[in-house]
């Protein structure tokens, strides 16, 4: 077997992509996708541990996580739909009423 | 018997002050209370004087505890010795005469007299306490009370801006002197740990050990006298103080309060003789004052101003006497200067009070006109006033056998004697002689302009003699102006004798001279005749100018030089203006400096805090972009730093 660190590297790389996307995007859909990336990076970590320690708890966690991620993506999309309806564009930089 | 109740002497006027204020609505607005309290004070003080003169016991002290502050105890008490008994009797007597005179002079004041009599009574209480006190602290407190009453009384007609301003000036200028006095007293306390006269004066060892500091303290104490007795350079307030009623001028600024400085120096003699250089300062300032005041009196047209400058000049004489006396006491144990200074104090009190009250009578008769250029011919209209004022004039000019001659002669003699020790006193003696001439000149000028010749205005034409309550005190004082000189032969010198030997053992002891001895000494001394001659010359000049309108030789026709000199004198040597200008510069300068500090420093600090805050906030606010993505960045950055810290091992 390959060392477990390899999976952590993959997970970290994915996490980093997700972070970068969150910090720098203006597109709300891209924001949601990046959040999914973050979540899935954590899932990979859990799955790796589950495989290497023969512990099924990790897989259970992943199951829950996928469900929650789906729910949260639904909520997110509804918020951004409202934003589109209000502002005519889904640009997140339009939400800046707390500026200053 | 009287000595035990001597504390009543200042208490009577103090009670009168309280009662006059409480019992308003009296028919004479407080005059009754004032007069009766003065009579009582006079009786007690004369009794004390008699007992002090006839018994040869040690001076008595009546003391009570006053306050205790941080381990230091202060007492209140009275010292009854020849000097204090003499001053108390003098003050009570003059105050009584003036209080009798006042109601007629201020007859149209009505209920305002309540304030007048209350303030006068408070003043008399203060003056009596000053002279009777047994320690410097009580004396200083009463000194301040006198200054307050002087302010109140000068500003009696406070509706007049000139009076209010003069009152303020008097108070502030004497305050400068008071500050000096207080500093001196503090210094004394630091050295001796007591304010009591007896304890300080008897402590010769401590005085000698700290002679440098004692000298400074002595000069500072004399500074207080300079302020209160209006010597150069703090003489500017006295002429302006004539804005007050003439009775106030008579009581405060001629007969009593301004003598306070002279009294203080006399009282502090035992302290000053250890550092005799103080006496040179005293005499020099006295001499300067005597001279400049006499020259300024020559050109005044307001009758009260002439008398005010005359007072300044005579006070200068008293300080000359005390200065010379201190020298003589320190070097020879002689009491000549001391006694002659106090002798002149008494004589001057009588004839100056007489002159002021006489001037008041004239002013009343002229319906409140002070200007001598409008007077004239009053000798026929107001004979009693005219004769009594003539007595006073002859006395102050120093013509025998009136009192002024004896005391002035004694002063000149003490200056001459002191000149053997310190040459500067010989110069001061010459100045004293010159001032004697000038005094005779300006005083007779005053008398001639006021009473002789023809009336120069309607008011003078319609003048009439004053009522009896005014002329009787004048007559009494005129008798004293003539005769008080003869006290010298009645034991004055042995009564007010300063025993320097008692305080410094190395000084030879000198007994007081008997009356007959003094008399023959004066008559056989050639310099006596010199001073009489100079006085006579002054009278002759005054007579020829002002009575006969024939100037001797070709003087006084005002060519350019004399005119400029006249201008300088009339403008009071520009000293007054310089004084006011300096005061204004300091005051305004200080105010401007304070204003700048307020605007730049204080406002700057306060505003600066605000500006800094705004500036920093302006930087901080850049972080609040309002974008959700920025917040995500911040969160991640914080998380990263925390992980780094954990990794490094901070937590």
Morphology call of chain A: elongated
CA radius of gyration of chain B is: 31 Å
Give the quaternary arrangement of the chains: heterodimer
Strand content of chain A: under 5%
Average pLDDT score of chain B:
85
Mean pLDDT of chain A: 93
How many distinct beta strands of chain B?
2
- Which structural category fits the helices and strands of chain A? mainly alpha
Radius of gyration of chain A: 17 Å
One letter per element, helices H and strands E, the order of chain A comes to HHH
> With helices defined by DSSP (H or I, 4 residues minimum), what is the helix count of chain A?
3
Main beta sheet of chain B: strand number and arrangement? 2 strands, antiparallel
Helix content of chain B: over 70%
Strand order across the largest sheet of chain B:
1-2
Number of beta strands of chain A: 0
DSSP helix count of chain B?
A: 29
Structural class given helices, strands, pairing of chain B?
mainly alpha
Unreliable stretches covering 5 or more consecutive residues of chain B: 552-560
Largest interface: A-B, 15 and 11 residues
Query: How would you sum up the major sheet of chain A?
Result: none
Question: How much helix is in the residues of chain A?
Answer: over 70%
What is this entry, summarized?
The complex is a heterodimer of chains A (100) and B (651). Chain A is mainly α.
